[in-house]
Records
---
Amino acid sequence: MTEKKPIKRIGVLTGGGDCPGLNAVIRAVVKTAWYQHGVEVFGIEDGFTGLIEKKIVPLPPQRVSGILKQGGTILGTNNRDNPFRHPIIVNGQLTHVDVSEKVMRTIEYNDLDALVIIGGDGTLSIASELCKLGVPVVGVPKTIDNDLSATDITFGFDSALQTAVASIDKLYSTAASHHRVMVVEVMGRYAGWIALQSGLAAGADVILIPEIPYRMDVVCSEILRKEREEGKAFTIVVVAEGAKPVGGDVTVAKRIEGSYDPVRLGGVAFKIAAEIEEATCKETRAVVLGHTLRGGSPSPFDRILATRFGSAAVRFLMEGKFGQMVSLQTPKIVSVPLELAVSKPRNVPPDGEYVATARAMGAVFGDEI
Ligand code: F6P
């Protein structure tokens, strides 16, 4: 793909974990391309696997009608397949090969002049590599974790937050009626945004995030102090899946070999609940929200952001702004280089205003006596 062709056919792909709002982006790409530029859009199925295995389907405007409010992705997705490290079995052994040439052939065979690639850091890193091979690409950032530094917010986060808060709200009845400690684990990988913001919105007593390693003795003595001094007979603990004790490590649920990030976190809530029960003698239960946070219909905020992102992605392609990612820099949607977009994660600043506000509400992070 060396000579610069006018854009007549765009391919769109969703990679990495699903999240609410992916379909809204796909719809916006199709509608903007067709209605504003007379450009056809083709869906690439199952992430980069579709480019390797030539799974390309036409996406006329009628195909995306009604998908704005649908969770997941109509194209399917995949968080294992990387064209530059494609997993294959040789002599019974898992090994990885570069199949990027196959990808280039699929793009040329299907006459795709440019790609919109929607994903998190792993998917966008691959997008950046494809761009270096000469593929005109614009990336769209998605993740419920909100851990990409080059945009104010990723779509999917707001919907995940709504699900988390609604679930935590529902745990208050059991916590209060049984005078229990309820430990709720939320996703977020190595960033504590979902835990922090759902903890703030649901009025959690304890919020444990990866950015502030906790001490269990601090958490437990605070639970007992509140009961003794304030008559608080129940406790809501919100813990990020990536939270870890001071001097300790994260809780790993499993490894997915071949994935961009093979470590899957999960299960810290069970450890914490057991430790709290033992130290405080208070009945304690653990609830892991897990993938429920990725499910369901996108919130209005996410639908709008995803639509703005999808529409802007086509606009940037048509303006020849390749190798860029759409980004919200409030109030504007701007383009930022893909390489920059994936170079640095976005973490909760421990001394930031969100943490300070939660502390002002009496929330305990487990780092102070
Ligand atoms: O990045 C989104 C996310 O849901 C994380 O919060 C979580 O750690 C991970 O994906 C789970 O991945 P999988 O769907 O492969 O279990």
Note: Residues 159-295+349-360 form a domain with the Rossmann fold fold (CATH 3.40.50.460).
---
Amino acid sequence: MTNQSPTPAQRHRVLFVCLGNICRSPAAEGIMRRIVEENDDQTNWEIDSAGIGAWHTGQLPDQRMRVHARRRGLDLTHRARQVKPEDFDRFDLIIGMDSGNVSDLRELARTPGDLKKIHPMSEWMGGVATRYDHIPDPYYEGAEGFELVLDLLQDALQNLYAELR
Ligand code: 4NP
């Protein structure tokens, strides 16, 4: 059988959203890209990240997040951008890192169809090892905060991939 490219309707189009788009969501984007690459599944996925706020537009991820990600072999090269209403046209799944992100996204939604696309990351968390129900903001935390984010995301995104693949 020939290896046909999927039609756009079959692609998984996922946008990860956090507050600033410099810590959690670019990490989620990088981890998801790696999972998809490891499964040689890039043609089936469109992955991006964005922030609720525009404060860091154009910036690379926070230096601390880049250092911690690098130790796991992940290069985070995303440039921060603010989420916009048209993202609801480009993506089918818009995943907020915490309940604040989710309520801010709901404010941006234009239609009931848009609302249905918004999900909290907690839907894919809750493996036996975790007592967290959101991805905690590491911005004002130390090194452990960044490590925790990466651990929680790795687990949740494996679950997301297993569900959607
Ligand atoms: P993020 O972390 O939402 O995971 O990117 C933050 C980054 C910046 C700010 C807050 C959280 N800030 O207030 O600038």
Note: Residues 18-24, 55, 137, 139 surround 4-nitrophenyl phosphate (CB under 6 Å).
